[in-house]
Design a protein that fits this description.
379 residues, 10 helices, five-stranded antiparallel β-sheet, alpha/beta, binds flavin mononucleotide
């Protein structure tokens, strides 16, 4: 039986459900061209804004690795260490809308069957900023972008009325989405910050504003470690650091938890999953929770900047997964999307042992003392 890799997500046809997320892999025409040639089904451009952007001195992103023998987590490269996470304090694209506009057009003309989503960001709190969102949206769709992703999620903004500061305020989420929807002729996705108490609240606000999909997660707020020898942060400028964003393997279970909250609250809505994906195994969790597409950043950055091997693995992993379930009648992502969403329940709904076999929590599991039947206390 042949595998159908294609998906339709928010009305857009994708030849496969794998996208590069808005980040360095999608910051230029040459990167996006290479990404499409490598097989990615779509890209979300690096976020485009109207305000001037100047990044800090030196590195905008670095990678933390951990060693099996001591579990040390550090940005220092050393042999045998495995990737733990990415850390970045990069701002949105430092290229202007005028720079992006002809490039969006050229890319779409060269790759009409690939999906190009424009990530956009402006401020909030007044009509002028809402018009900025509309100008960005109208320009990007006018040049041929297939959809818009509203960045309500950047955790390290140089302006208080932008990025995750919008994503933390349900009123702003709703108002900005509505303003963009007023002019949008293409689907509108909202990328939310994971740094709120209950992401369902902000997602509901975006849906009230007319959002076609929610995208989650952006990076999680974090700071780099302090080198115990130099007493300096492992990434700093003049000894100073500010809160940045954590991505990569370390955030996978955290991002999945956010996604599970979302897909359970809105089982009939569309979601694009991001966070810690480098292989199909991780992507599968997002699909099984209900996502229609998934996006990748950190793993792609570390694979020739646009992830040619990552996309190969994702595609072959998807094919194998579906072929292995051919007996269940699976042919495409739609056949298994969301089938594990309902397995997440309240803890009170999880089965407990009978009192005769209850050892007060002492079980033969890693990290716990050996079973101690004498401490069985339950009546
Ligand atoms: C260096 C860097 C720059 C990023 N820039 C953006 C951005 O401009 N807009 C955006 O929405 N997300 C941005 N992100 C977040 C990623 O798109 C993605 O949501 C996050 O890294 C989690 O995915 P991952 O675990 O695959 O890295 C950036 C991430 C990194 C590491």
């Amino acid at each position: 039986m042949s595998v159908d890799r294609s998906v339709t997500f928010t009305g857009i046809h994708f030849e496969n459900p794998f996208l590069l997320s808005s980040a360095p892999p999608t910051e230029s025409e040459s990167n996006i061209t290479r990404a499409f040639e490598a097989g990615w089904g779509g890209v979300v451009t690096k976020t485009i804004g109207l305000h001037p952007v100047v990044n800090v001195y030196g590195a905008k992103a670095k990678f933390m690795r951990t060693s099996p023998e001591d579990a040390n987590v550090s940005m220092k490269k050393r042999p045998g260490a495995a990737l733990h996470s990415s850390w970045n304090w990069e701002l949105i694209s430092d290229k202007t809308l005028e720079w992006w506009a002809p490039r969006i057009r050229r890319i779409k003309e060269a790759f009409p069957n690939k999906v190009l989503i424009a990530s956009i960001m402006a401020g909030s709190g007044n009509d002028k900023e809402l018009r900025h969102w509309q100008e960005l949206a109208e320009t990007a769709q006018g040049e041929g972008a297939d959809g818009l992703e509203l960045n309500f999620s950047c955790p390290h903004m140089d302006r208080r009325d932008m990025g995750s500061n919008i994503g933390k305020d349900q009123g702003l989420c709703s108002v900005v989405t509505e303003a963009v929807k007023e002019v949008a002729k293409v689907p509108v996705w909202c990328k939310l910050t994971p740094a709120t108490a209950d992401i369902v609240v902000e997602a509901a606000a975006c849906f009230r504003g007319g959002a076609d999909a929610i995208v989650s997660s952006n990076t999680f707020p974090s700071i780099p470690l302090i080198d115990p020898e130099t007493l300096e942060f492992e990434i700093n400028v003049d000894g100073l650091v500010s809160s940045g964003g954590l991505g990569g393997p370390a955030i996978l279970p955290l991002a999945l938890a956010k996604m599970a909250q979302l897909t359970k609250a809105f089982p009939d809505r569309s979601f694009s999953g991001i966070g810690g994906i480098s292989d199909f195994n991780q992507a599968a969790s997002y699909f099984l929770l209900g996502c229609g597409t998934v996006q990748v950043c950190t793993a792609a950055m570390l694979d020739q900047a646009v992830g040619p091997n990552v996309i190969k693995r994702l595609l072959s992993g998807l094919d194998k997964f579906i072929e292995e379930h051919a007996k269940d009648g699976w042919k495409s992502v739609e056949d298994f999307r969301g089938i594990r969403r309902d397995r997440i329940v309240l803890q009170s709904e999880i089965r407990r042992p009978e009192s005769s076999e209850y050892y007060s929590g002492y079980e033969t599991v890693e990290g716990y003392a050996a079973p101690q039947p004498e401490v069985a206390v339950r009546a």
